[in-house]
Amino acid sequence: SRAGVSVSTVSRVLNNKGNVDNVLRKKVMDVVKSTGFRPSNAAVSFRKGMDSIGVIANMDDETSVKVLKGVLQVFSQRGVWFRFVSCNDPGELSFDKVLITGDMPTPMQIQAQKKVYAGTWCADGVSVCPNYYHSAFMVGEHLYSKGARNFILITGEIKKYKHARFYAGFLKAMYVKKIDEYSVFHGEVSAKFGFETTKKLPLIPDAIICSDDVLALGAIKALESEGINALHKTIIAGCGNSLILSTNYSFVTVETFAENIGIKAAEILLNDLYESDSPETILMPTKVIDHLD
């Protein structure tokens, strides 16, 4: 803190790695000498010749936490040292390699030679994501097999990768099954939006498909407020197999196997065959989970 720089900058100066301005480098070294500073493992990160690794996670997102569990499993097995950074951490973020789990609530400036995104997608690195397109398609087919013939889709903004792919998969299912009776609503991924959208429907459909379990929870609450018969008449489907739907309600969801995504992403981060200058998207399998009575 005396030098007024981040831990990652101290690490790069001490290891003589990365692009650090000469004036800043001298400032750091002067403080090190004047204070007798002995860097901790977090500051040095790795001895010379080894990569500094950062993990940035959105701890407010349940799926991101599940992904992180898989990442930590691999790092623990391989004895990997890393620096954990909250997505709300201020200051400069610079690593040799960085793994990002889940969507970040605010844009972040991250410098790294290699970036791997786990559970989300970005164009400047390797992305390991659930196959949301196929997930929505499978849900549509599954609900059709249950007798649904008119559908509502409630999804997040399609500028987000997850919701754009889920929306496309839903449209494909409607096309294949020759379903003309459907409507789509885009908005905030929240129980409130799921609730309000469902409450405003002029007619209760056979099925309400949501691109996230949070939206599905709102839809369930809205139908519940209309009476138990309404809840039994309509099939609710979400995505994520989240704890928030661990209720006595009947519903369908998609298991994204988030922990496996974290394992795969961590293995890719440590594998030098995958390079950031060759962006790649790796789609992981999902499964429809039927909790209908």
Automatic annotation (TrEMBL):
Alphabetical list of InterPro entries matching this protein: HTH_LacI, LacI/GalR-like_sensor, Lambda_DNA-bd_dom_sf, Peripla_BP_I
PROSITE patterns in UniProt: HTH_LACI_2 (PS50932)
Any Pfam family matching the protein: LacI
Residue ranges constituting the HTH lacI-type domain according to the UniProt record: 1-48
Keyword terms of this UniProt record: DNA-binding, Transcription, Transcription regulation
Domain of life the protein comes from: Bacteria
Protein known as: LacI family transcriptional regulator
UniProt KW Cell inner membrane keyword: no
Hydrolase keyword on record: no
UniProt GO MF annotations: DNA-binding transcription factor activity; transcription cis-regulatory region binding
